[in-house]
Amino acid sequence: MADPSNHDAERILALSPLTLDRLGDIRQFLRVTMEELGCAGATDAIVLAVDEVCANLVEHAVDHETVGMAPGPTRVSVRRSQDDAIIVVEDRGHPFDPADAPAPDLTSDWIDRPIGGLGWFLVKQMVDEVHYDSASTEQGMLNRLTLIKRGAAGASSSGPV
Amino acid sequence: MQISITQQDHVTIVAVTGSIDALTADTLVTALLDEVAAGRTRLVAHFGGVEYTSSAGLRVLLSTLKEARQRGGDLRISDIRPNVRQVLELSGFTSILKCFADVDSAVASFANMSGTK
Q1: What's an example of a GO molecular-function annotation for this chain (chain B) (predicted)?
Q2: Which helix (H) or strand (E) holds B30?
Q3: How much is the mean pLDDT over chain A?
Q4: In terms of CB atoms within 10 Å, which end of chain B has fewer, N or C?
């Protein structure tokens, strides 16, 4: 049950390692957490955005020793700030700023439409703000992606995802 | 995710249940492309049981649609839930993928199929 007195507490899911078979766990964690935080109406949007981010971390880590695994631990945290939901994904893989993701092709005819390239587009559609920073630490790179969903606490579950 | 494949009026119905993500998409695209490779190029993806898809599901649909159309068939989709429909709409897929309210109308739409656009 949602505990209104506990809305500000940060919920954390640590994944070590992050592999594609953990995506279902991540989505379940987000569904439970968003409900607990009183942000159930924004669940679909957050689930899709974070799923895309985490799948990218695994799929673009192919030059790592172990294919199919994001390098180092990955941490997903969710908290609520007033009516906004704030999700932070920290990883130890290769830095990639989503601002550098190429624009998607949404309009070509089927024969010319490229397969793929929609993940970051969907992330950006699902949330209001995307912030990224990357730093070199003693443990290697630390990349931090912050997703902010404004008004998540007041979002209707039947509204836009 | 579960996949069930049946035939109806020379159309192959691929009913999908569960979530399509970067893990499960491989299984689905393999199942669909196997049908196309076997010459069953008129396909309906019955999505009534699909509660979630990420962009991985979009890759599956577009890969299959291209293969099927290049062999004279098509991939059509039915029974899309609202949250899945929104992903398709945002991604511009509703302009290239024929969507139907139910399986029967999707199957029937192949009856007067005269090539692909």
Answers
A1: anti-sigma factor antagonist activity
A2: helix B25-37
A3: 90
A4: C
CATH code for the domain of B52: 3.30.750.24
State pTM to two decimals: 0.92
Percent of chain B predicted with pLDDT > 70: 97
Is B113 inside a domain boundary? no
Tokens 């404004």 belong to A150
Q: How far is B62 from chain A (nearest CA, A)?
A: 6
B54 contact residues in A (CB cutoff 8 A): 48, 51-52, 55, 119, 122
Mutation for A interface: B54, B59, B77, B84, most A CBs within 10 A? B54
DSSP B102-114: SHHHHHHTTTT--
Inform me whether the C-beta atom of residue A52 falls under 8 Å from chain B C-beta atoms. yes
| Structural domain total, chain B | 1
The domain over range A11-149 is classified in CATH as 2.60.40.10: no
Cα B90 to Cα A102: distance, rounded to the nearest angstrom = 16
pLDDT band at residue A140 under the 50/70/90 scheme: confident
Q: Which one has a higher pLDDT value, A6 or B50?
A: B50
Q: How large a percentage of chain A has pLDDT more than 70?
A: 88
Contact A161/B86, CB-based, under 8 Å?
yes
Confidence (pLDDT) at A160: 47
Q: What is the mean pLDDT of residues B1-6?
A: 98
Q: Which domain holds residue B99?
A: 2-104
Question: Which two tokens mark A51?
Answer: 């799923």
